[in-house]
Design goal:
The complex is a heterodimer of chains A (383) and B (615). Chain A is built from 13 helices and 14 strands. With 383 residues, chain A is an alpha/beta fold. Chain A folds into 2 domains: 180 residues, Periplasmic binding protein-like II (D-Maltodextrin-Binding Protein, domain 2), CATH 3.40.190; 152 residues, D-Maltodextrin-Binding Protein, domain 2 (3-Layer(aba) Sandwich). In chain A, the strands form 3 sheets. In chain A, strands 1, 2, 3, 4, 5, 12 and 13 form a 7-stranded mixed β-sheet that branches. In chain A, helix 4 links the parallel strand 1 and strand 2. The radius of gyration of chain A is 24 Å and the shape is globular. Chain A starts with a helix and ends with a helix. About 2% of the residues of chain A have low confidence. With 615 residues, chain B is mainly alpha-helical. Chain B has 3 domains: 253 residues, MetI-like fold (Orthogonal Bundle), CATH 1.10.3720.10; 35 residues, no CATH class; 216 residues, MetI-like (MetI-like fold, Orthogonal Bundle). In chain B, helix 18 packs parallel to helix 21. Chain B starts with a helix and ends with a helix. About 2% of the residues of chain B have low confidence. Classes of the chains: A alpha/beta (383), B mainly alpha (615). The interface between A and B is large, with 56 and 46 residues.
Chain lengths: 383, 615
Amino acid sequence: MKKIKILVCVILVLSAAFVLARYGGKNKPKETWLEKAALNEEFNPDKLYEEAKKEGKVVLYSMSSRTNDVKKTFEEQYPGVIVDLYDMRISEIIEKVEREHSAGLYNADVVFIKDPDGTVYNEFVEKGILHNYVPSDIGIKIDQQFKNPFAPYFEARSIYYNTEVYKEAPISNWWDLTTPEWKGRIMISDPMANTEDMGLFLTMVKHSDEMAVAYKEKFGQDIKLNGTENAGYEFIKRLAKNDLILTNSSDEMIQAVGAPGQKNPPIGIGTSSKIRQKSKGYLIESVKEMKPKLGTTFPAILLVVDNAPHTNAAKLLIHYMSGGADGKSDGFKPFNVEGAWPTRSDVEGKGVSAGKLDMWPLDLKFNYENMPQLRDFWMIVNR
Amino acid sequence: MEKLETGLSKGRRELDGKMTRLKNRFMRLVTDPYSVATVIAIVVLVYLIVVPLWEMLSATFKLSPQDVRSVPGAIAGEFTPYYWKKIFNSSISEAIFYGPLKNSLFISLMVSMLSIILGGLMAWLVTRTDIPYKKFFSFMIIVPYMLPSWSKSLAWLTIFKNDRIGGYPGVFQYLFNINPPNEISYGVVPIIITATLHYYVFTYLLMSSALSSINGDMEEMAEITGANRYTILSKIVFPLVLPAILSAFILTFSKAVGTFGIPAFLGLKVKYYTISTMLRANIRNRLTEQAYILGISLISIASFTVYINQKAIGARKSYATIGGKGVRKNKIRLGKYRISAVIILSIFIFIAAVIPLFILLMQSFMLKDGIYSLNNITTHYWFGKSNNLIAEGEPGIFKNPLIWKSIYNTLKLAFTASIAATITGTILGYIVSRGRGKISGKIVEQLSFIPFLIPSIAFSAIYLSMFSKPRLFIPTLYGTFTLLVLVSVVKYLPFAVRSGTSNMLQIGYELEEAAMVEGASWVKRFTSIVLPLAKKGFLSGFLLVFISAMKELDLLMLLVTPDTRTLTALTFSYTDTGYHQFADAIMTVIAAIIITVYFISLKVGDADITKGIGG
């Protein structure tokens, strides 16, 4: 009996200590981390590298498989600092960061992600789960709209067509996609699984007056809404009713659109940078002009994770991935491709220059506020 | 006066006696290892099974911070019927709940009916007739169950892909130059067919144990009195196995209703959602509360069907351990139908087991999907070095460090989980079998059966949120290997406990009593009598969990992180990205490992998983 008593006491003491260790004084180190991280400090490569070597590594959660090249070149350029790379889908990154933060597990340093529906900005950056960091020497070279959150380049959604069948772009107005000609022949990633198309749709909702004008241009008469709120929602509804083919994979889409020897190939909507698949035997091209606008800009953003254990290495990596001092670092090369547009004024892009693009800017607040409504709307019309 | 005093003291003495007895009973309770083990078991089971269910339910009534934007004036964390209303009674209810529900129910109904017919027929052929090559057939019939259920969906897509998704043609279109209609390529028809080709094994096992327990004398008697084969079947065999048929139907139904992989691969392209795929879409959009409600509805459906089963047939035990007591059986002579039976069975096995594997293997060697020519053959997806022109520079599976990590993870998980589950199952089985008739045994049995009712995808959704924070004595398990083991062990507990119980029941209590008389302690009894005798059953239970864990996707899907990714999760993400050849190659590896392990245990350990699955 005595033994049991002792055991009970030990367990109680241990659990009390456990609870205290968990919840006591939790707020203190958080403040000091942000102070210590000094994210507004002048960028000093030599000092950072010295400190980063002491940290030994940097953990990156990345949306792009091209980050594999970054890992290789970064480790060559900065010996002694390993890049611990996790290549995941955007939704996986969001979930992992959120859960790790709420669990108090501070594993990651840098997050490389897009934010089409504003979740990352409104739920993570605003709440201090992720922090914005703009290297000071690069900050002076980019436009304000790409500074918060910081994005070294942006992409868009492109419409791809088969060049063997179509000598030139078969469509030039978003409303073309709602005509019977394209029924059952439009491939798009499942918006329930991929928020980028949702981001595009949300911008159309925001600029619904422009969508209405484009409608009139196409059909010669004013738009009649069938129980929808505005021309943006009306477009989404008619598009969904045009028997879309959903896929989760841009590669599958490119293959379907661009495989040679087809008679009746579909057209596909996907990430603009997939145009690089052209070099792999797929006969694809992207539509260059659309009414009312070509699409929406989707900045690729780099953020520092709250309580990141390797802050200096994180800063160094962000600097490297956004082009380094002169914009020519190998860390940016994998991303400076056709279908991606650098935001730095001193870096030249590979395709149409960013200035000539006719796109809507991404509105993180509007998209975030309207996402639930659009998602419910989509569920109803996409049946 | 004296009388009164004696009366009083007598009363006191009685009271004292009562107290001593109570005290003794209490002391026995805390010192007797059996009762201690029972108490611990109940506490742990409640903590791992009942508490998560409760948390899931209560979460659906709390407004999450991100939904504040959708409910004007609301405060995060407050009580709200918002989610339930949204799912059951709003403009999206039809899309998010009723539509998928209809699909789920229809699929499970069709799958269980077809499985009963197929599985029942095969069980009858193998157990009751004189069909030749029995050993071979009974091995081959269960092979499809050793492949992940959705591997057949992948094979289906490879064959019947039509040009709805454009690109290169499927095998069927290539061979016959006919473009299969949408209804054949995607959606409800292929979902039902491929699911049936998986779940028929389940009914086969249930039915064959039922059929083999029928006393052959009755049939013989009928035969002597001149009844023909049809009369025997319909008047004797069928009524006898009717309870088993019903059970098998219900069990298959409750399993099929939660299946995720098959509708995920075949349904999306034609917007055919089931509750399980809808649940995943909600999780992915961080609509956790909505996902929970979908999960709860799946659990309710499964519980309801099992409840009906119990009502209709009586105790659940009726399908538990249908005895394999050596009943002398007179095999029915198939006569002139013998050859045709062999041929039909062979063709079926060829379609269900051989073709899917062959198709996957073949596709993994094709450089470009759907081009059927010799110069399109490559070993790149197996051994190729990273080449930027193929699949974004993804190297062949055996040149990819990811793969080795996943193989390691998978094997580690399968072994750890199956050993842990078998040990737990044996201990709980001991409690159940020795506690037959006692309330403690019943509680343990019922508790450990609950995970059966919780579809895997719902189960992992609960564990995901429950262990994302540190809890009483348990640190954060999110992203750890331990979480995968834990969830697997608990999910397979019904099987493990079932096989543990039947195993223990076979070991007579007399042996233990004899040892007890000799003064052997409980630990001694358990380790030197019970365990050695339970060895064979142990291996079977182990094997069953091992196979399930190897091919598990639904359960792990939401819980794996890049560090703990298993082979199945890797396959799924490859397929999702459109890298079919990699997925096929990995699938082949999974199949090879499972079949090898099964074959070895069959030869070396004389293991028999059939009873376990049946249970």
